[in-house]
Amino acid sequence: MKLLIKNTDNDGRFALIPDFLTTSWTTEVADSSNREELARKILDADAMVSMNWPTDMPPAPRLRLLQLPGAGTDSNAMSSVPAPGR
């Protein structure tokens, strides 16, 4: 399984995640300013941690978990989050 983190959200805290996982995960960081890289990496991501989810995010057909650890929803376009089973 693959966890994707945008580079703008990668402030060092996420380096600790593998220490807490009991299942096999790959953790990748994507350059959110490089749309081609982000689109390529998010295609097969199972989970993503991000402080925001704008309306122009590339498709994420395999995404099963979107963790938005920030407070509030003003930076999140929830209508663009994939629905379960799609």
How would you sum up this structure, described in words?
- The protein has helices at 17-20, 35-42, and strands at residues 2-6, 26-30, 47-49, 65-67.
- The protein is of the alpha/beta class.
- The protein has one domain (2-80).
- The chain has a 4-stranded parallel beta sheet with strand order 2-1-3-4, covered by helices on one side.
- It is globular, with a radius of gyration of 12 Å.
Described by the principal axes of the CA atoms, the overall outline is: globular
Quaternary status of these chains? Answer: single chain
Sheet with most strands: 4 strands, parallel
| Helix proportion | 10-25%
Structural class of the secondary structure composition?
A: alpha/beta
Number of DSSP helical runs = 2
Count of discrete structural domains: 1
Radius of gyration based on Cα positions: 12 Å
Distance between the termini: 17 Å
- Give the strand line-up of the largest sheet: 2-1-3-4
Q: What's the pLDDT, averaged over the residues? A: 82
Number of strands: 4
The poorly predicted ranges are none
How are the SSEs ordered, and which strands pair?
Blueprint: E1 2-6, H1 17-20, E2 26-30, H2 35-42, E3 47-49, E4 65-67
Parallel strand pairs: 1-2, 1-3, 3-4
Q: In a nutshell, what does this entry contain?
A:
The protein is α/β, with parallel strands linked by helices. Helix content is 14%, strand content 19%. It has helices at 17-20, 35-42; strands spanning 2-6, 26-30, 47-49, 65-67.
